[in-house]
Amino acid sequence: MTFATAGIACPTMHSSSQDRITLAHGEGGRQSRRLIAEVILPALNPADQHLTEDAACLPQPTGPIAFTTDSFVVSPIFFPAGDIGSLSVFGTTNDLAVAGAVPLWMSLALVLEEGLPMSILSRVLASVGRAAREVGVRVVTGDTKVVPKGMADGLYINTAAVGLIRPPVPAGPTALAVGDELILSGPIARHGVAVLAAREQLGILPEPTSDCGSLLPGVEALRRRSIPVRAIRDATRGGVSAVLHEWARDCRLSLSINELSIPVADETRGVCELLGLDPLHVANEGTMVIAVAPGAGEAAVAALQELPQHRQAALCGVVQVRQLASVVVQRGLGRAIPLDEPQGAPLPRIC
Amino acid sequence: MTFATAGIACPTMHSSSQDRITLAHGEGGRQSRRLIAEVILPALNPADQHLTEDAACLPQPTGPIAFTTDSFVVSPIFFPAGDIGSLSVFGTTNDLAVAGAVPLWMSLALVLEEGLPMSILSRVLASVGRAAREVGVRVVTGDTKVVPKGMADGLYINTAAVGLIRPPVPAGPTALAVGDELILSGPIARHGVAVLAAREQLGILPEPTSDCGSLLPGVEALRRRSIPVRAIRDATRGGVSAVLHEWARDCRLSLSINELSIPVADETRGVCELLGLDPLHVANEGTMVIAVAPGAGEAAVAALQELPQHRQAALCGVVQVRQLASVVVQRGLGRAIPLDEPQGAPLPRIC
């Protein structure tokens, strides 16, 4: 009998304790153990059954490593083209990918709210398993806590991951130089808009979908073609604007982008106009900003466009000598306008 | 100006946004960046200022590694002799220590509730920094999310850590054999009782204090003396009972402990009797169960007792041929009684 088939209740057990998370599932006793053995482990890689140990013992990495973590508190838990489970895998392993590392091992820590339906947990865990297999990362250690009703919003997930750094690693934003070209790997603002539309039930058709996905293939494509990459960053919270502002600070130059070159899906633009949001400030979860050496932009775009998820990759900007504004946007056919740094909370809880 | 001195408000800013966490602190824009730069980083190791990168790039470990994670949702956040900050460091690095690893690098992920006073966050972060320096682990990567008021209980913390495995590593509970001796490294049930007494404001005097602390020195002391250790486990959620039951399942033998030999502080025993709790089921956060080869128990206890935190280490039990009950307790002078496996939720949210 497994909790994964929670719809088929065993008549000898209280369905309340079988179908929903209770505080006892977080107390380290038999209930915790059964949750791990019957719900959590089967959803992940069956080879990873040593997850019940307190720490995973792993072989020596064959080179330098990258290490990163992210917590996920997205609302709603499920959104078009993703959910908190896939997001927790892609979000963390994308941080490794843009650092030049191949994901090896991941941890999965759940904070569950008392009363969470077991069916929801199972769906989320299945999504974690699928995404982890797609990325090729192994979930090797985990943790489960349960908080009383009202003290979390369904569930929160934390993932941390270790990856193997594969040279050459981009020098990073401090190495940006005048004339470097700026690329976006695909249409921007899809994730934030999809989550917002789902949360607010805006009823937009076609339904905006998230770009939630792995950046590893795109990074690998650039590496295979030996593109001279200076810096790569996934444009998550704060969107493309946050990345450009951080890079401008790091290199002490100005970054200029051309609005007409920036890919934005029609349904994304529609929602942004409706709500007064600038797509440049809205979060992505499978789209990156790439800076390459002068003249390398077109080859980089061609390499990316061979992948279905990056078919709309585009050359969008350039690094310039320092001006008054550190980030400027050529808006339409007019003059360059400074781009504000994201400050407030236009879109809370999108990851 | 730093947020760390939040009591001295800068008159040109709204004190509301300076003194308390707002949703904007979690959105990846300027407010997030300032929180990281002005509150989080200064509390941790000043050498770790590259925390603003998405992933930490680290040198190749010199051998096999251990990797572990834990989330912390303890209530209340502060309790006698510890808080959620020190707990999040010791809890995770203790998992490495009992796996035979020396902690190297740690991640720190915060889920903050909107409205959390900045002074509370600063106190917790200072505690994280102190504990990390004590253990010798470097906080190299992190994440901050903010959830709306009512969707977390102040703050939750996740830590994950990577450690270097140092041979010899104990073979683990499957290797337990008849005649092996069982040791407790100190008085049990202190953490669970201290948190419970603080949460319920029981007003017990002397105030029960947590054992929240590092197990690394104890594990190192056993290694230095070349004690033939079979298995070590920190007795956290589910207490000593959960460890013994897990070990009994793994080795298919019975574990017998003698109640009179088990160290329990008077104030702990008092609270347990008041509330009908068995100290064997109550969580510890700086106390471990150790199994050693036959005859090695006294040397192990002597090695541990040289450390102030393990002065009351005691030889408490033995591994026996399999009986009907997998774990038995010699209660007082009477006969051996089976020890229940912890199941329910006697003490929710103690870690």
Approximately what portion of the residues of chain A adopt beta-strand conformation? 15-25%
Number of helices of chain A: 9
The overall average pLDDT of chain A, rounded, is 91
Based on Cα principal axes, name the global outline of chain A. Answer: globular
State the share of residues found in helices of chain A, binned by percent: 25-40%
The end-to-end span of chain A amounts to: 34 Å
Rg of Cα set of chain A:
22 Å
Order of helices and strands of chain A: HHEEEEHEHEEEHHEHEHEHEEE
Largest interface: A-B, 81 and 81 residues
User: What CATH architecture of the largest domain in chain A would you give?
Assistant: Alpha-Beta Complex
Report on the architecture of this protein.
2 copies of one chain form a homodimer. The first copy, chain A, has 351 residues and is an alpha+beta fold. Chain A has 2 domains: 3-165, PurM-like, N-terminal domain (60s Ribosomal Protein L30, Chain: A, 2-Layer Sandwich), CATH 3.30.1330; 173-338, Phosphoribosyl-aminoimidazole Synthetase, Chain A, domain 2 (Alpha-Beta Complex), CATH 3.90.650.10. Helix content of chain A is 30%, strand content 24%. Chain A has helices at 15-19, 30-43, 84-98, 118-135, 190-200, 216-224, 239-251, 266-275, 297-305; strands spanning 56-58, 65-72, 78-79, 82-83, 101-113, 138-147, 155-165, 181-184, 229-234, 254-258, 288-292, 314-320, 327-330, 336-338. A 7-stranded mixed beta sheet of chain A has the order 9-11-8-12-10-13-14. Chain A has a 4-stranded mixed beta sheet with strand order 2-7-5-6, with helices on one face. Chain A is globular. Residues 1-16 of chain A have low confidence and may be disordered. Chains A and B meet through helix 2, strand 1, strand 2, helix 3 and strand 5 of A and helix 2, strand 1, strand 2, helix 3 and strand 5 of B.
